[in-house]
Design goal:
With 111 residues, the chain is an all-alpha fold. It is built from 1 helix and no strands. The protein is rod-shaped, with a radius of gyration of 46 Å.
Length: 111
């Protein structure tokens, strides 16, 4: 009877050792998983911070570019006005040439 009791205790010790090693392995796996998750989370935080910095830099650049864009728009409006003025002057010149031609043809008797 003592022999079977010792065998039973031995089997229990073996099972207990297996259970302890399984728990330790599971604990180690969990620790590695958490470490990997925290590492990925930190990488995501760094990427988000970098994105925020890039957006801030782009905003500053666009604020500076806005001055240039508004200046270009003013020049564009000026050139449109100059084209309109040039067109009006050319039409007046063409009308003057036509009027002069009509007058000259009337004086020379070509009409």
């Amino acid at each position: 009877m003592a022999d079977t009791a010792e065998r039973a205790i031995g089997r229990l010790e073996g099972k207990l050792d297996a259970l302890v090693s399984a728990v330790q392995a599971s604990s180690e796996d969990s620790k590695q998983y958490r470490t990997r998750i925290y590492s990925e989370l930190e990488k995501a935080r760094e990427e988000a911070a970098e994105s925020r910095r890039e957006i801030a830099d782009l905003k500053k650049q666009m604020d500076n570019a806005q001055q240039v864009i508004s200046e270009l728009e003013r020049w564009k409006e000026r050139f449109i006005g100059m084209r309109m003025l040039t067109g009006a002057l050319l039409m007046a010149f063409g009308g003057g040439v036509a009027l002069l031609w009509k007058w000259a043809s009337a004086k020379l008797g070509l009409q």
